[in-house]
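FIELD: query
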Amino acid sequence: MYSLFSDVAVTTTSADVNTGALFTAVLIGSLIGYALAVIPIWAIFVKAGEPGWQALIPIWNTVVLLKIVGKPVWWIILFFIPIVNIVFVILTMHALSLSFGHGAGFTVGLIFLSLIFYYILAFDSSRYQGAAGYQAAPVGYATA
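FIELD: result
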């Protein structure tokens, strides 16, 4: 009896082995890159009084960032529109800068050297001052 598979030889080439090694290297590199990006966002969220684990969830972390900087949640839609998203990312970064007491120069740093300035913002001595730097009026009776 003739079999279709009896004439097919199975060989393993070095390309198969290299593909697996490449995939593993890319996976490990991606995980390290993700961890390096999430660490400062986690610290910024904690500084602003939000649970840090929210930095791990894509899209949700942007919603939380919008809450921290005092912008409406529907802005998330604008981040998906080409060209428009550039403007709204700049506005969000400026509001983030103001929320921690920094100015326009720090905003430029957040835009062009994002990861470095996220780490600076996360681990410097600045304190969260409220959404876009606006202090809420004190609630309660005056003590003086």
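FIELD: remark
Residues 16-133 form one domain.
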